[in-house]
Amino acid sequence: MAADIQAGLELVLDPTTLLVVVLAGIFGLFIGALPGMTATLAAALLIPFTFFLDPVPAIASIITMSAMAIFAGDVPGALLRIPGTPSSAAYTEDAFRMTQDGKGPVALGVSLVASVLGGLFGSVVLIFVAPVLGEFALRFTSYEYFWVAVLGLTAAVIISRGSQIKGGIALMLGLLISTIGLDVSIGYPRFTFGESELYRGVDFIPAMIGLFGVSEVLRNATSPIHLGPVPKVSSRGSIRESLRTVWRYKHRVGSGSVIGGAVGSLPGAGADIAAWVSYAVTKNTSRNAHLFGRGKGHPEPIAGAAAANNAGLGSAFIPTLAFGIPGDTITAILIGVLLVKGVTPGPQLFTMNTDMLYAIYIVFIVANLLLLPLGFLLIRASSLVLQVPRATLLAIIVAISIVGSFAINNGYLEITIMLLMGVLGFLLERAKIPLAPVVLGIVLGPIVERNFIQSVIKTNWDLGQFFTRPISAGLIVLTAILLFAPPVIATLKRRMRD
Amino acid sequence: MTPEASSTGTPDAGPSRSPRRVNRTDLIAGAASAVLGVAVLPAAVGMPRIAQGMPGPGLFPGIIGVFLVLFGLVLVVGALRGRRVDVEEEAPAVAGPTVSTGRRWLNGGVVLAGIAFYIVAAETLGFLVTITLVVLAVMITLGARWWVALITAVAVAFALLLVFEEGLLVQLPDGLVG
């Protein structure tokens, strides 16, 4: 154990890794702080760079970047009432009203301190829960992997916000994209349209850059709204008041962290859903609930929800590390990057790559500690960051997307894939179809299919094996519960109201 | 589809609390999903089988096709019945002046055309010239001053060349000029 921690530390304290962590952190703060630019977009722009890094700095850059971006999303929420990332949306109203009351830096300070505490809690949950599940997963065969992946896909659809039918369509699109290329059973080319370059399938990296990079540029460029003037904020004395406020609502930070830790670990539910759940819980249990989201705004729900979204980030890595099943969009992207680099996330990490595992744990702690000073600097510079001209920014994102996609394989097919996926992402967003299930479908599709085909070939199509093995049966029951939970809860709610 | 078009529909349908309308977006999305599913199905059925009639490559695309049709039809029926599927939660932002619809489409079109232009022209014109033109076009369309756009475009092109060719050792296209 001590040797593992030391090996992990050596990997993280490598100068290249540290430099990558700091640069990725600043990048995450910057992109997250820009209105409408999400943590996922930042991840998509990072991927081409991670492609050229070793696995540990690659993972470290994505973890640090997302921890920073999820906090930074609160900045335009508080200043302009436009959440920078979806995970800030839950408490944007409160933060914005506090800014109008002259307390913007306090709202952001509370959110920052709560984010750091929540993030650290999420890291601890990850460190203790992931190995337990990982050990359990060592007993998995292709049958169990099939069901775990099915469970992940089901969760992605059920938990996706908005209409579940739309979540289902999104998932099927992702799965369909994942079937392009040579199939796993007999190497038959599927949907390749005679293009031999497509035999190895749709490259994950340009697909993600298109889905999140190009589509966000399109959405921003075609947005009917120009940003209004950015309010000036003076952060004098705000650090002390933020700390006092967080102390006053420490139990909210605690409950938010626990909610984030639990919700984030569900496949398909990420930081944004954790924040919404925490906001709802705070609102239902607080004596000050009548002050939330109106009047001068209130810091209490911010403390809880900001802790929840950063805690969710850490715990989203639990299914990622233990089963190789992504917990949210960012971990899905990370799994894609790892697969490209020849690392298969999953229980093998706990037996073979323990130094890498411990390095990931340490990165989580380092990233959250680094968030505190960098976050306060961002709050100071927030008005400046928001004044970066939009035209310049969007044009640069387009240029990085093009070069990044090209660099993966020195090919123009990748740029074409990026372009098409960008249009797809844009259209799906306009139709209010969520993008997260598309990514999960692309990542999990091959896992589901490969494990299914392997299993049926092993047993000569004896499908009974899928249902009679004890762990499989348990996973099926979980999937069924997940499928039937929403209608049952809806019926119960209706009964209670009547 | 224009925003005006999406607000048309049957104005009144019974004593419900809010007036029911055909949800055009859902109608189109559902129909598109169903059509895609229908297109996938024959391709899936036509794929070879592993052995003794056991399904192989076509199995998963087939299942996906069926679900695409199914989900698409549910969405279409929901849209026709005028059920509001989504709840709007977005608060109005602090907004400045709004941009006209035509202008917005032009902005999006230039972004797409820029990327397409890179695909066809980079090999001939080389990386530096092509990416400069793309950044320049996007920036000017989005309202930047021409000299700001020019300086930014050249700077971005050289910065990316430095990072990718020197830093990451990626061979970017030199073109006929480079």
Beta fraction of chain A: under 5%
Q: What is the H-and-E element order of chain A?
A: HHHHHHHHHEEHEHHHHHHHHHHHHH
Helix count of chain B equals 6
SSE class of chain A: mainly alpha
Strand content of chain B: under 5%
Q: Level of helix content of chain A?
A: over 70%
- The radius of gyration computed from the alpha-carbon positions of chain B, rounded to a whole number of angstroms, is 25 Å
Query: Helical residue percent of chain B?
Result: 55-70%
The major sheet of chain B is characterized as: none
Widest sheet: strand ordering of chain A: 1-2
Q: What would the principal axes of the Cα set say about the shape of chain A?
A: globular
pLDDT average of chain B, as an integer?
81
Question: What's the total number of strands of chain B?
Answer: 1
Largest sheet of chain A, if any?
2 strands, antiparallel
Largest interface: A-B, 74 and 77 residues
Number of helices of chain A: 23
**Shape of chain B, please?**
flat
- Rg of chain A computed from alpha carbons, rounded to a whole number of angstroms: 22 Å
DSSP strand tally of chain A: 3
Number of domains of chain A: 1
Q: What does this entry look like structurally?
A:
The complex is a heterodimer of chains A (498) and B (178). Chain A has one domain. Helices cover 74% and strands 1% of the residues of chain A. Chain A is built from 23 helices and 3 strands. Chain A has helices at residues 2-12, 15-33, 39-50, 55-72, 74-80, 92-100, 104-137, 142-159, 164-179, 204-221, 238-248, 250-264, 271-285, 299-315, 317-323, 329-340, 348-351, 354-385, 390-409, 412-430, 436-459, 465-468, 470-497; strands at residues 181-182, 189-190, 225-227. A two-stranded antiparallel ribbon of chain A has the order 1-2. In chain A, helix 1 packs across helix 18 (354-385) and helix 4 (55-72) packs parallel to helix 18 (354-385). Chain B has 2 domains: 3-80; 101-167, no CATH class. Chain B has 6 helices and 1 strand; from the N terminus they run αααβααα. Chain B has helices at 3-6, 24-45, 59-80, 101-125, 127-141, 146-167, and one strand at 95-98. In chain B, helix 5 runs antiparallel to helix 6. The chains are: A mainly alpha (498), B mainly alpha (178). Strand 3 of chain A pairs antiparallel with strand 1 of chain B.
